[in-house]
Design a protein that fits this description.
Blueprint (H helix, E strand, L loop, with lengths): L11 H10 L4 E6 H12 L17 H11 L12 E4 L1 H21 L2 E5 L7 H13 L3 E2 L7 E6 L2 E10 L2 E6 L2 E3 L5 H13 L6 E5 H9 L4 E5 L5 H7 L5 E4 L10 H10 L5
Parallel strand pairs: 3-4, 3-7, 3-9, 9-10, 10-11
Antiparallel strand pairs: 1-2, 5-6, 6-7, 7-8
Helix pairs in contact: 4-9, 5-9, 6-7
């Protein structure tokens, strides 16, 4: 694979236009009613919606809603109950720049890094590009607990899932496919293996969904991505358990993330 071309890095204004045009931010396809349902379920303490985080304060629905207005840029109109919602592209880029600064420090220090995604159908190329450039700069990208498996609850009933690494990025696989997951269990298994074997502990986790939540809960420095229907990581950021959360639609066609990836790599000083 050829190295990224620094000339392909968009300006902030160009990235903003791209995010809005591709529905990564701006008016997004995530249904408002789905957002509100998830906020209520997180506030009710439903584990599936907490991504492995244990919150130190009580989060009411009103608290979660206000947080998502502030950190994600959802529509603040409380009478808006149905239809599409919004993500503020300026907040997306601000958080992307903060994430880039943290990844840049990891590269400069040649840190040990763990990458994982619960959205392999969308975000995997972002992680693959970051992993490749970190390795090229002397970072150790670790791949613990490969092959660990468990019975995951799915819409079709329990199914066996296992940790698989794709060029250094942890995903869940099963039945010959890569799978979407919110579960914190795989990250917990990774951290348990690292603890049991007294091997290298990650200096940084770059992840999403339960992969990020479980790492942050255990005190591992973590940055991640989250959609506007996934409030848990934003609450974790508010409580200091997650370092940076980038708000974005996390499941648009993978090639739409290329300008975002280039911007992140440049902000991390991994290209240019």
């Amino acid at each position: 694979m050829t190295a990224p071309d620094p000339a392909a890095v968009p300006t902030r204004a160009e990235l903003r236009e791209h995010l809005v045009r591709t529905l990564i931010a701006g008016d997004v396809a995530t249904p408002r009613q789905n957002n509100l349902l998830h906020y209520r379920r997180m506030a009710a303490g439903r584990p599936y919606y907490q991504f492995g985080l244990e919150f130190t304060r009580e989060w009411t629905f009103e608290d979660v809603f206000a947080l998502m207005v502030k950190k994600c840029g959802i529509d603040p109109d409380t009478s808006h109950l149905y239809g599409d919602d919004t993500i503020d592209p300026e907040l997306t880029i601000d958080a992307l720049e903060a994430m880039g600064e943290r990844i840049g420090r990891a590269a400069a220090r040649e840190e040990t890094v763990l990458l994982a995604t619960g959205h392999p159908s969308g975000l995997l190329p972002v992680y693959l590009a970051v992993a490749r450039e970190l390795v090229a700069r002397g970072c150790r990208v670790i791949t613990p607990a490969a092959g660990w498996s468990y019975e995951a609850d799915t819409s079709r009933g329990p199914e066996r899932r296992q940790i698989r690494y794709v060029d250094g990025v942890a995903v869940l696989s099963g039945g010959g496919a890569l799978h979407h997951t919110h579960d914190p269990h795989p990250m917990r298994a990774i951290l348990e293996e690292l603890t049991a074997n007294a091997t290298l502990w990650p200096d940084l986790v770059i992840a999403d969904h339960g992969w990020a939540g479980a790492a942050g809960q255990e005190g591992v420095p973590t940055v991640g991505f989250a959609d506007c229907n996934d409030p848990a990581l934003f609450a974790g950021e508010a409580e200091g358990k997650i370092g940076v959360v980038v708000p974005l639609d996390d499941n648009v066609p993978p090639h739409y993330y290329t300008p975002l990836t280039m911007y992140l790599l440049a902000r991390s000083s991994l290209i240019g």
